[in-house]
Amino acid sequence: MTRKESLQLFEDQKVRTVWDDEQEKWYFAIVDVVGILTDNDYQGARNYWKVLKNRLIKEGNETVTNCNQLKLRAADGKMRLTDVADTEQLFRIIQSIPSPKAEPFKQWMAQVASDRIDQMQDPELSIEQAMQDYKRLGYSDNWINQRIRSIEVRKELTDEWQRGGVSGMQYASLTDIITKEWSGRTTKQYKQLKGLKKENLRDNMTNVKLALNTLAEASAARRRTPLT
Asked: How many Å apart are CA 121 and CA 124, to the nearest integer?
């Protein structure tokens, strides 16, 4: 499962989002949305959401109890656990916030979902969006170019594996073999070393590590079968 963090813009205001490839869902940072709808700064939005969340929980609102937490990049650059909601959950939360921006924001959410479908149908749009997302997150041009190359190589590799009959958890097992070849660690061990949980490992690699990983996967993609 791959989750990719990105920044979306609603009327020039940033909303941290995460796309879950497996579930094909967007997750939105609730506090960012609350800040937009209530015209509050970050601290004010946090306080507003804390009060609203407690009220909804007391009312037995399942939307709040089913919300997830993901590590997202905070203003100080650190990864912090953040309350997130998928599109359906967020629609329900928005209904509890009196705001003239509620309807425009719902329309914006629908457009975000539509854009994602377009990107899935046209890979070039997806790559262009990825470059913009990484740029907004503060990555250097050199790192972004390396990361985009790694995405392309990974796609070539998984396509080759699929043709070779690989399925399910075999992808993770084969990825572990490749990662261990160049890093000396499995993917899980490498993520533990970097203090990562659900974040994308490659998004937290240096230029050099990305290059090593890309080289290893490119070499594997050229092999006749995935297990040789």
From this structure: 9
Beta strands in 75-181 (DSSP E): 79-86
Q: Which residues contact 122 (CB under 8 A, 6 or more apart)?
A: none
- Domains of the chain, by residue range, sit at 3-122, 139-221
Rounded CA-CA distance 116/114 in Å is 5
pTM of the model: 0.53
Q: Phi, psi at residue 138, to the nearest 5°?
A: 95, 10
Please report, in angstroms and rounded to a whole number, the separation of the first and last CA atoms in the chain: 25
Collect all residues with Cβ–Cβ distance below 8 Å to 116 and sequence separation of at least 6: 19, 26
Strand-pairing partners, residue 27, are 18, 86
- Amino acid at the residue 93: I
Q: Which residues contact 95 (CB under 8 A, 6 or more apart)?
A: 102
Across-strand partners of 71? 81
For residue 37, count other CB atoms closer than 10 A to its CB. 21
Note whether 139 and 146 are within 8 A (CB): no
- What's the pLDDT at 68? 85
Backbone angles phi, psi at 127, to 5 degrees: -65, -45
pLDDT at 42 over 50: yes
State both tokens at 179: 């990662």
Compute CA distances 35 → 75, 149, 167, whole Å: 14, 36, 43
Q: In what order do the strands lie in the sheet with 13-20?
A: 3-10, 13-20, 25-29, 79-86, 68-73
